[in-house]
Amino acid sequence: MDSRVAENLVLYDWLSFTSKVHSPEDLIAALGLTHVPWTETKGARGYRDRKYFSCISIHYNGRADMGVWVEMSGQGCRTFETLSTLSKDDKERWVKLFSFISSQGLKITRLDVAYDDHTGILDMGAIAQDTQTGMYISRSTYWETILSSKGSTVYIGSPQSKVLIRIYDKAAERGAVDQHWIRVELQLRDDRASQFSKIDLPIGQAFAGVLLNYLRYIQVPDVFDQNKWRWPMTDYWCNLISDAEKISIYQAPGMEYNEERCRRFVVNQAGNAIDACIQMYGLEEFANMIKNRETAPNPKYEEIVKRHRFEVLAARVMKYFGN
Predict the structure, then answer these.
(1) pLDDT in tens, 53-105
(2) Is 300:37 a contact under the CB 8 Å cutoff?
(3) Structure confidence by residue, pLDDT tens digits, 301-322
(4) Poorest-confidence range of 108-112, 147-151, 261-265?
(5) What pLDDT is attached to residue 318?
(6) Range of lowest pLDDT (130-139, 178-187, 267-276)
(7) Which residues contact 289 (CB under 8 A, 6 or more apart)?
(8) What confidence score (pLDDT) does residue 300 get?
(9) Using CA atoms in the order 265, 267, 273, 277, what is the torsion angle rounded to 10 degrees?
(10) What is the 3-state secondary structure (H, E, C) of the chain?
């Protein structure tokens, strides 16, 4: 997890859409990412070709009726938020992208919206137990709980449904035993995804409203009522809904590609080639070769350098002001 993330967030964590009238270059421009170095690679799901950059894929050259398919994973969404030139404001970038998709009549095939609890509002053990004992109401009859070495996961809704809710221990998934990170994820498909993108509310309120419509964890009322939809919600679900509604200004957590991952890539994957060049040309000449390389700068690495410089400066300042 990015160490800068300390507060609870609601964020877009997956987006895929298709167009039958735009070229890959058109959609790259629509994303505001014409300035980054895209690579050509093999496509998927019937598409022969793909343009790829930092977890964003643009598949093309499929059948005539397939058009172009844009796929942004969670990290692809972070890349879009960090590097897109559509706007300097994180929230406005998404507004402009969704506006483009809607105005052009494009089809959103999947949109994931996630709430990240870092402050201890949710307890996965309680959620899993309440799911198994039926202490919830939902528009879906399908549920599933999974316990593994990566923590607990709860599914409400089948994998084929247009609305799937997944609740899981993100910290356990990543092996971060000293952190609290529970994620509640709305996975929306087709018309449900499109409808969410058009809700004219802050992202937190939109998320809370849709989640409340599809799932509530409940407790037995003081006076018995056969209609479980009228049963009171558990404290933890009330707190989640209330907290999500307050998140009115979108704050992007930033790209997770960091200094350590950059170092591991250079040392472990490119280390042998770098060592050979230094032995052949010497350290000074190798540094000149890198400085004068023909490849365009990658904004992903520029972002890491900028962050590193800030952290070094902050560390120097703290020496004078104390912790």
Answers:
(1) 999 999 999 998 999 999 999 999 999 998 999 998 878 999 999 999 999 99
(2) no
(3) 676 676 666 555 545 544 544 4
(4) 261-265
(5) 46
(6) 267-276
(7) 277, 281
(8) 62
(9) 130
(10) CCCCCCCCEEEEEEEEEEECCCCHHHHHHHHCCCCCCCEEEECCCCCCEEEEECCEEEEECCCCCCCEEEEECHHHHHHHHHHCCCCCCHHHHHHHHHHHHHHCCCEEEEEEEEEEECCCCCCHHHHHHHHHCCCEEECCCCEEEEEECCEEEEEECCCCCCEEEEEEEHHHHCCCCCCCCEEEEEEEEHHHHHHHHCCCCCHHHHHHHHHHHHEEEECCCCCCCCCHHHCCECHHHHHHHHHHHHCCCCCCCCCCCCHHHHHHHHHHHCHHHHHHHHHHHCHHHHHHHHHCCCCCCCHHHHHHHHHHHHHHHHHHHHHHHCC
Distance between CA 290 and CA 270 in Å, rounded? 13
- Residue 263 pLDDT: 72
Task: Tell me the C-alpha distance between 238 and 233, whole Å.
Answer: 6
CA dihedral 4, 58, 87, 36 (to 10 degrees): 80
Q: Which residue has the tokens 């070495």?
A: 149
Q: How far apart are CA 251 and CA 240, in angstroms?
A: 18
What's the average model confidence in pLDDT over 168-179? 89
**Which one is predicted more confidently, 88 or 21?**
21
Task: Report the candidate in 177, 134, 133, 173 with the shortest Cα–Cα distance to residue 153.
Answer: 173
Among residues 68, 90, 60, 87, the alpha carbon closest in space to that of 77 is found at 90
